[in-house]
Amino acid sequence: MRNRIFLKALVALIAVIATSMLALDITIRQTWESSLQSDIERLLVQNAQSFALRVENDHQHSLQQMALEEERITQTRATIIAHDGSVLADSEADPRTMENHASRPEVAAVLRGKVGSSTRLSHTVGVEFFYVAVASGDKIVRLAYPLANVKSDLARIRTALLHGTAWALLLALVLAIVIAEIISRRLRRIVQFAEQIAQGNLSARIAETSGDEIAQVASALDRTARRLEENFNDIQESRSELEALLNSMTDGVIAVSPDLKVRWANHAIGSIIHQHVRIGAPVVELLRHPDFLATLTNALKSKQRETAIATSLSGRRSFSVTAEPLPDGGVVSVLHDISEVERVEKTRRDFIANVSHELRTPLTSIRGYTETLLESDMAINESGREFLQVIRRNAERMGRLTEDLLVLARVESGEEKLDLRSHPVRQLLTEAASSMQENARSSGVELTVEHVGDWSVLADGYAVQQVFGNLISNAIRYAESGKKIIIGAHERPDGIEFFVRDFGPGIASEHLPRIFERFYRVDKARSRESGGTGLGLAIVKHIVLNHGGAVRVESVVGHGSTFFFLLPKA
Ligand code: ADP
């Protein structure tokens, strides 16, 4: 990491420096060369012009002398040429051996009336020269500067430039290394910071003080880390609050993963299972209770809240178990101890059953003596007979009440085992109709059975007749005016639903939710008058619930009521 950033920055910096050095070197060298060349040209032209002036006006010296002198003074080869191109004098060669120069570019240019110049190899001396020719009266003078001189000058300049460039490059290289190291060190700090955050150290900071872009990135990362730390602390705080809250509960709370391993449990769980809760252990090792485990797996499968009652879960204690699926696939379960509620409930039921039982004998005795008195030949006046009849009526009512209370206590406790068998639905309906037919007829009500399919239910036949008895006698009693009662059944996905339908006055909707409660009556006076105890529907409900079924009622005031009860299919 370190080397990569460092090397990249270094290579980039060196590339930039080298390119700019090269460009600078080329530009300087070109400018220098062209300025040197134009300086030499200007000097040569000036020298040639003053030489031309001398050749034109000096009549004392020979042309050859003047050429030689010119070479000595100006260090250039001097040539004097006639207009026809023949060489008259030359400072370096014998003019007689020299060929005609009329075709030489610089001479030709002068003949055309210009100042001639040319760079080329001399045929005469075999060296590369820079030639300049000007007119000098009837002659042409030409000066030639050996290019070897220029080239050696240029070579010197180039070497000097190269040295300069090399030094500058070396210096720039050192500078580039230092800059690259500074940048990479700062980036390395950011990387180290990111690694610390990734490892969970949210208190790590970079704290860059300079104001450049790297510092801006660093301070943005610092701000992010600070916010993360704050949020994390908030979450930790709420988590410990929640933990304290759950630990203060008397209900046991346990969270398990999708593979049924313990994730978390509150203190109450420890006291329920009488052992230390090991996080990560399979839940079955802590609580090997079939109902509890089934509730957990059901909630995991259905992804819905599941509830159940788990008896003898911890010693002889009973718990209501609620399992709620968690969004990540696990499940959280709450175990609420209902042993005390069950104990109180049982005491209440036992008390009612005992009282009812105890009342039976005195009531039978009261009824017996009243009847004996009424049927005896004893002289009892009219009002005395009336009193005795009132006593008999109330004793009968109390008798019914104690009977119903005993039945209710029995069905509510669920202690009485049901004799579950497969019963054809049609047969159950006909039996119910025939046993109640007489009552219906005497009240002027027509009782009919609706045609049903060939289904069977799993039920206790005697209990089902008790249910029908209560519902049909209610229909006769409260819906006599409808003149018609229909009983029947429908098939439903979860079982067979029986119904008892009347066409009487119906029940107002506000009473419907409470109608199955014990002692709940819509019209108290009417109920009492007709011999009702207010317990019939409560008995119905408990018998059906004991079968694993359900009850409901539909009613429209003025049109009648339909009572439904669902029983499982055989
Ligand atoms: P009760 O002994 O008073 O009949 P139930 O529990 O059987 O007690 O019924 C509760 C109340 O529901 C009754 O008092 C009555 O007001 C009402 N009720 C029951 N069945 C019917 C019905 N078919 N039509 C109208 N009201 C009814």
Helix content: 40-55%
The portion of residues forming beta strands comes to: 15-25%
CATH class of the largest domain: Alpha Beta
How many extended strands?
A: 17
Strands of the widest sheet, in order across it, are 2-1-5-4-3
Question: What's the structural blueprint in terms of helices and strands?
Answer:
Blueprint lengths: L1 H56 L5 H12 L2 E6 L4 E4 L14 H7 L4 E6 L6 E9 L2 E8 H52 L14 H36 L3 E5 L5 E4 L1 H7 L9 H4 L3 H13 L3 E9 L2 E9 L5 E7 L1 H37 L6 H32 L7 E4 H18 L3 E4 L6 E4 L1 H18 L5 E9 L2 E8 L21 H6 L6 H11 L3 E7 L3 E8 L3
Parallel strand pairs: 12-14
Antiparallel strand pairs: 1-2, 1-5, 3-4, 4-5, 6-7, 6-10, 8-9, 9-10, 11-13, 14-15, 15-17, 16-17
Helix pairs in contact: 1-2, 1-4, 9-10, 10-14, 11-12, 12-14
The structure holds adenosine-5'-diphosphate.
Overall description:
The chain is an alpha+beta fold. The protein contains 14 helices and 17 strands. The protein has helices at 2-57, 63-74, 105-111, 147-198, 213-248, 267-273, 283-286, 290-302, 339-375, 382-413, 425-442, 461-478, 524-529, 536-546; strands at 77-82, 87-90, 116-121, 128-136, 139-146, 252-256, 262-265, 306-314, 317-325, 331-337, 421-424, 446-449, 456-459, 484-492, 495-502, 550-556, 560-567. The strands form four sheets. It has a five-stranded antiparallel beta sheet with strand order 2-1-5-4-3. It has a five-stranded antiparallel beta sheet with strand order 7-6-10-9-8. Strand 6 and strand 7 form a beta hairpin. Helix 1 (2-57) runs antiparallel to helix 4 (147-198) and helix 11 runs parallel beside helix 12 (461-478). It binds adenosine-5'-diphosphate.
